[in-house]
Sequence to fold (145 residues):
Amino acid sequence: MRNYVSIATTLIVTLVFGWNAAYAADSADQQAIMKIEREWGDAFKTLDKSVFEKYLSEDIAMTDENGKFIQGRAAYIDGLMKGPKMVDYTMSDVLITVHGSTAIVTGKFVAKDADGSMDSTRFTDTFMKGPDGWKAIASQETKTQ
Fold:
């Protein structure tokens, strides 16, 4: 019995400390992209155009949760300014994979509008690293339950 407790304790410690080590080992690029994703989410709440202008490429391609295709940063920002006011959001299940100067981010985004309605989507964002840092070049959302 003591052997099983010892093995279980070792497994738990390994999982906990291994996860923390893996989290701490995220690359600088992954950390930078996660920061952008958080600022992007916060900008949905504040409708801060400067954040979108800073992190979205001029020619970003976006497919929203309703299947509407939006081409270009200006059209993307214009659509956001006309949409419902978001008051809160959570992001979860975020996975950032970097391949050289390209990165793919997947995750779940749940938004609460001012009227209390909740929207849940899975997203995929594609980033490219250039001379002025990481910029989102494509984004796709799918409604979830």
